[in-house]
Amino acid sequence: MYEGIVQDLIDELGRLPGIGPKSAQRIAFHLLSADPADVRRLAATLNEIKDKVRFCRLCFNVAQAELCRICSDQRRDPEQICVVEESKDVIAIERTREFRGRYHVLGGAINPIGGIGPDDLHIRELIARLADGTVTELILATDPNTEGEVTASYLARQIAPMGVKVTRLASGLPMGGDLEWADEVTLGRAFEGRRVVA
Amino acid sequence: MSRSARGDRVLPTYRDACNHGWVPVYRDEGVVLRTTPLAEADRIVTVLTRRTGRVRAVAKGVRRTSSRFGARLEPGTYVDLQLHEGRSLDTVTQADILSPYGAVIAGDYSRHTASAVMLETAERLTGEERQPAMRLFLLLVGGLRTLAQSERAPGLVLDAFLLRALAVSGYAMALQACARCGAQGHHQAFSVSAGGVVCPQCRPHGAASMSLAAVRLLSDLLTGDWAAADASEVRTRREAGGCVAAYLQWHLEYGLRALPHLERV
Ligand SMILES: [Zn+2]
Ligand SMILES: [Zn+2]
């Protein structure tokens, strides 16, 4: 145990995802010995992130205004919505330049053992977006793992009666992975080869 | 595949370059109960194995889409594993799918919620790691296989699994005779704390009334009379299912996370 504020810093860092006690300690000591200007810039960004960044009212992607950059872009096709788990998946798909529609960020995936059911995700809001009939295709781009597949099959079942075409990314994406790890070419191909599921 | 070769400790197998000691490697088959992300691209997998009981192991790099393990270590998958024993956690060094039950079941939401309750129950009923629980393992494989085949109502498959899993863990539900005094008969009251049906004399305060049909169904599920269970009515299934859920929660110290998400159809 370190004294007071140093230990506080280690504890705070250790609460971040993917950072264990050893990494937390390493990052803390890196910050202690780093250039004060660099550390102040990091602190300022952390402050700003909570003040300025919020979630898009429509698609729940990270945004700096009420609507995210994609939802406020009139050139994006309003007839297609691509459903993803997290905002980082929007970035992965944008990199492929394969998709010109809009997104819907669920905020996770269904995982009963983890205590996450459909009501814990932005599914009700997604269904509301389909109500006016503008959207003709819903592309399910949840992760190619069990949680992502379960979420996709749940959505396909809920949305099928609404008469919207539902497609799923091609199985070229190997099972068990996270979408963010897919390279642009593989992900782009998965987009092109998407199959109709409902 | 020779069964006898499985689960046997094949130690020592090779030398550890750093410690100049023997590194224990073992092989077993098991069902993946749960996975938790670890660091950037790894996962910790919890597996109920045939011979070793419940183990936790690190699967390196499985979240990268280029991983050769990928789908082999997803929840509900029945796998053949080679593990490298570590101080606190083992490491998966090889995994081959025997049956991808989890992936098959993922296509059907109600079946998936039933399988999630099964996997979580199996984890909770194996209190300690590395305590062999072969009967529970066999029940789990059988339960997942039946769910994946899609021939039976998922609620019935789940309740049969739960009743039997509790029975092999020492919590058999009394259904033929009063749980308190042992009097045989068609009792129509159920007490979770007493451990099953109770006669009118023993009936404690707060015992629930139960239909004969529901008691009958529970007993058919426990003994495996599927012809009778398949013919049961929906409301009887609902009554029996509620009873199994209450009984299960009573025997586990705290609630199952997956149970509130169970979709009974
Ligand atoms: Zn948006
Ligand atoms: Zn009695």
Give a written overview of the molecule:
The complex is a heterodimer of chains A (198) and B (265). Chain A is an alpha/beta fold. Chain A folds into 2 domains: 4-52, Orthogonal Bundle (Helicase, Ruva Protein, domain 3), CATH 1.10.8; 75-168, Dna Topoisomerase Vi A Subunit, Chain: A, domain 2. Chain A has 7 helices and 7 strands. Chain A has helices at 4-14, 21-33, 36-52, 87-96, 123-130, 146-159, 184-192, and strands spanning 54-55, 62-63, 80-84, 102-105, 137-140, 165-168, 195-196. In chain A, the strands form 2 sheets. A 5-stranded mixed sheet of chain A has the order 4-3-5-6-7. A two-stranded antiparallel ribbon of chain A has the order 1-2. Chain B has 265 residues and is α+β, with helices and mostly antiparallel strands. Chain B has 2 domains: 14-99, Beta Barrel (OB fold (Dihydrolipoamide Acetyltransferase, E2P)), CATH 2.40.50; 104-261, Recombination protein O, C-terminal domain (de novo design (two linked rop proteins)), CATH 1.20.1440. Helices cover 33% and strands 22% of the residues of chain B. Chain B has helices at residues 101-105, 109-125, 134-149, 154-168, 212-223, 226-230, 234-251; strands at 14-15, 22-23, 25-38, 42-49, 53-59, 78-84, 90-99, 189-191, 196-198, 208-209. Chain B has a 5-stranded mixed beta barrel. A 3-stranded antiparallel sheet of chain B has the order 9-8-10, with no helix packed on it. A two-stranded antiparallel sheet of chain B has the order 1-2. In chain B, helix 2 packs parallel to helix 4, helix 3 packs antiparallel against helix 4 and helix 5 packs across helix 7. The longest helix of chain B is centred in the last third of the chain and has 18 residues, at 234-251. Chain B is elongated. Chain B starts with 13 loop residues before the first strand and ends in a 14-residue tail after the last helix. One zinc ion binds at residues 56, 58-59, 61, 67-68, 70-71 of chain A.
